[in-house]
User: What shape does this take?
Amino acid sequence: MIQVENLTHRKGQTTVIDGISLKIDDGEWVVIAGANGSGKTTLIKHFNGLLSPDRGVVRVNDTPVEADLLNARTTVGMVFQQPRDQLVAGTVAADVAFGPENLGLERNAIDTRVEQALETVGMSEKAQQRVHTLSGGEVARVALAGVLAMRPDHLICDEPFTGLDTTSRQAVYERLCEISASGTSIIIVTHDLREVIAPADRLVVLSDGQVGFNGAPTELPADDDRFNISLPTTPD
Amino acid sequence: MLQYTPGSTFAHRVDPRGKLLVQMSFAFASFCRTTPRGLIILTVVAGIILASGRCRPESMLRGYLPAMPFLILAPLVAGITGWPPTVEFEAVYIAGLASYRIVLILLVSGVYVVTTPIRDSRAAVQWLLPRRVGSAAGIAIEMVFRFFPLLRADVTRLRAATAARLGTSRPVRERMQHLGGKTLRYGLLRADRLSEALQARCLAWNPTLRTLQLSRHDIPSIILSVLLVYFGLQGSA
Assistant: This one.
């Protein structure tokens, strides 16, 4: 479980996150939406301690993130908005192994995790390929595999469909559904709600660094234009 | 820029410590044997090392392109003396041999870079150096190998973007200022992004590294290292 209590984050004179409180349960599928600059990415970076709060606290499984960064970063996996930024090794397999190696696991356990993660994202055949030769969709899937190999309880994806074609979007979406079915909570940050809203248990909309809406997606009318996001319209 | 390329060549199978040993002994021999005859023999050895990793000399040299103008110009600069300038062919010849020696060393080290995964290099360094010194050196090497290819890719994109908008038609000085300033800014941004990625993925001082194990593939590299050291000692005697 991730608990955010009265979180405030400032960048210079600007308050990006303004006293947000939020709870994300295990196994939940939560969509965090909002217009550009509403504080979505800043908020999720607090979930695994990439940013420190100016005020408030974020707890992962009841432990404050700042008190145990390793716990936060292994429990909460994060796929970046630009997945290519996340790849740090030369080859696909080496990149996916990077996280488990840092956890100090035995080599056999690392190999097993790498195999399973690559299988989950359908990239087993490209294990020895160099990462800079991959397409955008493949990079997204490798980044996802790198996070899955850490076996997180919560998976955060920041704009996971940006720049992907229809086939790659579908592939990533299907992987996310499978991961969700295995009990991992999914937190999607997006302003494009097309694919992600259907399986969502909850929609959190940020506006000017505050929570503008927090509830079931069906509770937010499709024509609600307060938050500058477009909900997919359902046919009559 | 040279980067690790997965493969199953002989050089890929050699333990990274064996490859480091070959590099060091090759450098030792090339600094001891500075005669044309010595350099011819070392050229043959370098050729064998390149072949062991199926590396093409031209692609290796392309990887070191920024160093090439210095290696080519150095002998000329060394040979020009006085005013009006006169060329001392003896000095050009000696500096030329020294430059060629550096090229050979770069070629051999290129084979190491192309055939050794980053984490294996770190394992070898941590094996060679004790405790925290080894960890610090290992992580520094890892950072360099991870950071520079990313920065290089950023700069390539920057140059392409500049060219796409006719930036190449601007004066050289202006282009250099633009590229230099932007590269510095991109470098800092890239460093921030890499740091964030490494934090998110739990970068550790003591990750699981490959267990280094000598095998029969290392025998030729050890023999070659011993022969190179012997060859070098003979030359210096």
Observations:
- Residues 26 and 117 of chain B are 21 Å apart (CA to CA).
- The first strand of chain B starts at residue 80 and ends at 81.
- The radius of gyration of chain B is 21 Å.
